[in-house]
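The record is given unchanged here:
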Amino acid sequence: MPTSVELRQQRAGVVESMRSITERAETENRNLTGEERQTYDRHEEDFRSLTERIERLEAEEERAAQMAEPIRRGAGRPDDGGRGTDEQRAQQRRSAFFQALRRGLPRMAPEQRALVENAAGEILVPEDLETEIMRALPELTIMRSIASQRSVTTNRIRRRSLAEVSVGWGKLETNEQELVDSMPGTPTEEFTYVEDLYGLAKVGEDELDDSDVNLDAFIRDSFARACAEAEDTACTVGGGHAAHQPVGYMTAEGGVPTVTAAGATAITTDDMMKLIYATPKQYRRNGRFTIPSGTELAIATLKDADDRYLWQPSLQAGRPNTFLGFPVENQEDIAAVAAGARVAAFGDFNAGYRIYDRQGMTVKVLTELYAEDGLIGWKIRKRVGGDVIRPQALRILAMAAA
């Protein structure tokens, strides 16, 4: 008896035969001949028949997997830790997730649907797959690779404004020193909000039907890319909760102190030196620049008194270029050099900015919206927030007013 994978391979061959018939007729700019029409109709019937067999066999395979799950042990009996059960459940959720992406929740068996559907009728991305997607994000973004990250379980995070912690030598109980309280006299209570980020991925109907082994990798890549660019933009220039976005560190709401350049239309070496030394020394040692590519091109021509370039290209793949000995990260959402514009940032981003992730990535299958194009859409919802947690760790270079 063939497996569901073997039947999918047979169906893929049928689809390819149908495609070759229509492509040959289109190439010759004619309609199908009588013989071609009969063959095409026969292939259509084969396609429907195989589809029914695949759905029936997949349901049987899912039931067999559930029946094979070991019975839970009683409280007073020896327990193996449930490792096999957890693995089987994770595999079942993953299998149900891919079935939901292909067929939609309404066409799934109730027991499969319950594994991946949330209260809002959305498809829950399995936790292990969501972890793999999150692991891929730092390779696609700037902020994920330089900022700190934290997982949360709420829609907002309470934070209070704090000064830097004060330390000193000597015994406090004998009044040998005095420490300044790091909490301001009238602390301000503020919140960082977790916002909804939506992405859209599309896949061809034939590719979705015929993909089994590669679907897992396609999901990881598509979902990660759908979120990466939007995250980078929002964490850099996002308008905050009022705009349903993270707080961008380049915005006034981020509260990062600014350094004003000497000129309005060009950056000098002195401007970049001023930006570095305006940052407290404890944050300079891990400091880095974030600037757009056009601005990096401009500073790449700056030289020192001995006519040596201050910008140095990276000699190792995956490592950034440097300027004045500090890494340079390209963030294209930062403004180009212009009068009054905020054009560069410097500092310890790991200490100064934090990204908050709330688990529970979900998907909605859009089967009708792109049907005329032969595509199926997946609307992805991811919950993420971001905020400047330590403004003193960063500095922004603003050009002089015109």
